Amino acid sequence: MKKKINKSLMGTATLAIISTLLLTVAVCYHILTTQILDDLRMYAQMAGALISVDGDRGTGDFSYVEEKMNEHQLRITLVASDGKVLYDTATDAKSMDNHADRPEVKEASLSGEGSRIRMSDTLDKNTYYYALRLEDGRVIRVSKTADNMYRLMEYSAPYVLIAMVAIFIVCGLLSVLLAEGIIRPIRLIAKDVENAEKLEEYKEMKPFIDAIRNQHADVLQNAKIRQEFTANVSHELKTPLTAISGYAELIENGMVAEEKEVRRFAGEIHGNANRLLTLINDVIRLSELDDSRVEEKMECIDLKDCAEACVNMLQVNAEKHAVTLHFEGETAFIHANKQMVDEVLHNLCDNAIRYNRNGGYVNVCVKNSIDTAILIVKDNGIGIPEEHQERIFERFYRVDKSRSKSTGGTGLGLAIVKHILIKLNATINLQSEAGEGTTITVVFPAVKETEG
Ligand code: ATP
Ligand code: MG
């Protein structure tokens, strides 16, 4: 980051220096050009006045004009109205061509004055010409050679170089300070996220700090949940394993003599082993549901068919509990994974049968509305006291631990249901009253059969 800030600052500085240099040279050159032409006009007027008053004093020599003006770098040319050169301070006038076609002379003959700048052969000098028409029609032309733009650049190059180095050093220092200023709060946040809000002077960092703090809190929360879950799993595993180990030990030590007793203990071992298997399967299922990489196959299924099949399957179980299990429903298509829907149905119906009472009933109903498919599992069993209702979807949460355990419950069923329903975009609603019964309503987004 520091490097990037340095680079961009240096780049900006270089660009600024170069553009300032070019602009300055261009402006200076323009001022210089104007100044030279202004000077030349003044000299031409002076020379014109001298020539008009004194003429050539009969000698054909106008060098006195140059001397009087005390400006030796000037070249003065006097041209007759037909273009013939009458006098030139630099060359013999007789050897010179007709000057009528020189642009500045032509311009002066026509409009009274004319000027031109011509580049010399060596390219580093310019010759400035200014021509003025005298009253008698002759044209006096004054010219001077001066440095051009390239030359100016050459002159200024060392100074520019010094300036550039100085600016570079200043920019370098500035960029270090700037980068440090930007990076400082980030470093402070990284060191201590909890107290990051104390960095009041960095208001702009607030969203960043908030995002990190939230993430941090999430990570801590997740770690806590995971740790609790591990502790719960271990605890739940321990109980049946201790029982298995105890019964096995008794048999091993020959403490159980009667065959009837052996059978009973073997039955206990079997029951606890099954409990262990159920628990392990539930834990595996939960971790599968937690893994967002696992993609479940979605298809168009009829909720009515699934519910009906589930009810039929659990009929024997219901009879065992002396509970009447009844189904009614209409066709309702949903886009879901069949195994997941079966799991939801099984868990809800199983709870309704298990937490029921002798002679109780369970009604499973599927309804189809415009864009939802509704599953209702209603029982008149023991119900759930209000204070537990919020928590029964948590992992390992059981209202009555002993009753749940005696019926083989692990407390993971509704946690699995909740996870599945989130994946299926469905919602779950619980209505229950202790001693009266429970109604669970699940609302799925419905699809038309053709959409699936
Ligand atoms: P599992 O389903 O894993 O075998 P479980 O049935 O104990 O075990 P959940 O299905 O998650 O676990 O249910 C949590 C608790 O909610 C149950 O222990 C029970 O106390 C209560 N509960 C769930 N459904 C009902 C219901 N229909 N009537 C009364 N209590 C219920
Ligand atoms: Mg259950």
What CATH calls the topology of the largest domain is Heat Shock Protein 90
Ions, cofactors, ligands: which are bound? adenosine-5'-triphosphate, magnesium ion
H/E element sequence: HHEEHEEEHHHEHEEHEEHHHEE
The structural domain count equals: 3
Q: Give the helix/strand class.
A: alpha+beta
Biggest sheet strand order reads 2-1-5-4-3
Computed Rg: 52 Å
What descriptors fit this protein?
single chain; 452 residues; alpha+beta; Helix Hairpins; 3 domains; five-stranded antiparallel sheet; five-stranded mixed sheet; 12 strands; rod-shaped; binds adenosine-5'-triphosphate; binds magnesium ion
Task: Please explain how this structure is put together.
The structure is a single chain. With 452 residues, the protein is an alpha+beta fold. The protein folds into 3 domains: 2-152, 2-Layer Sandwich (Beta-Lactamase); 208-290, Signal transduction histidine kinase, dimerisation/phosphotransfer (DHp) domain (Helix Hairpins), CATH 1.10.287.130; 299-451, Heat Shock Protein 90. Helices cover 55% and strands 18% of the residues. The protein is built from 11 helices and 12 strands. It has helices at residues 2-54, 63-69, 103-111, 149-191, 206-252, 259-290, 303-320, 338-354, 386-389, 401-406, 413-423, and strands at 75-79, 85-88, 113-119, 125-133, 139-147, 299-302, 324-329, 333-336, 361-368, 372-379, 427-433, 437-445. The strands form 3 sheets. The chain has a 5-stranded antiparallel beta sheet with strand order 2-1-5-4-3. β1 (75-79) and β2 form a beta hairpin. α5 runs antiparallel to α6 (259-290), α7 (303-320) runs parallel beside α8 (338-354) and α8 runs antiparallel to α11. It is rod-shaped, with a radius of gyration of 52 Å. Magnesium ion binds next to α8.
